[in-house]
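Lab notes, practical 5.
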Amino acid sequence: MATLFISDLHLDPARPEITALFLDFLDGEARSADALYILGDLFESWVGDDDPSEAGAAVAERLAALADAGVPVSFMHGNRDFLVGRAYAQRAGMVLLPDPAVILLDGTPVLLTHGDLLCTGDVEYQAVRRQVRDPRWQAQMLAQPLPARLAFAQQARAASQARAGALRDAGTMETVTDVDPATVDEWFTRYGVDTMIHGHTHRPAIHAVQVAGRACRRIVLGDWFEQGSVLRADADGRLDLSALPRAS
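Output from the prediction step:
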């Protein structure tokens, strides 16, 4: 048995094969897990717990079944689904985690975060993040009619894609959107952990990091755009970061 960590599924009606892959994962491998942690961006967008997404309904049903089968499910907000609320979490049988959060993994403290807070070099993004995570902004957004919120989500996605294109054209995509090494070191020191797990950057890897003479590791989860990136951590401390077969 293992504890499973995933992030950046970006479930979307335009990619039904990824939703199908995730549902198969929930009905299969996840059923024998010790626990499942979803570290943000489960959905490509989320406009409130009244979101009419069929994927959202199917995922809630399967996650609740997983939790009912005895596998604890924890969810941390990402930059795409920060409006997932307590109503949906309860419906899906998920525990909402703050970002960041320290958990005990087989008795060892491990730091979990979506990862966007580590990208401090992206000043423009961090300003937007502060705005949309403000409870007053969120309350105003959720008070809008559903069609207005859906339109806003489409506009936000288009703006994000345009900015990503501009960064690629300028040759700064890799540096601006990746984590800041100094911030990573500061977090290891602040939280007193030797292991950090995050997503967001879509650059799956296990990095060895030296922090004030300590050997640390930063584990980056991959996305699910064409495959399913899963980190498996067993009771003996073994880590396996690999991908599920490509969706058909």
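Observations recorded by the TA: The first strand starts at residue 2 and ends at 6. Helices lie at 16-27, 54-68, 86-92, 123-132, 135-142, 146-170, 173-176, 181-191.
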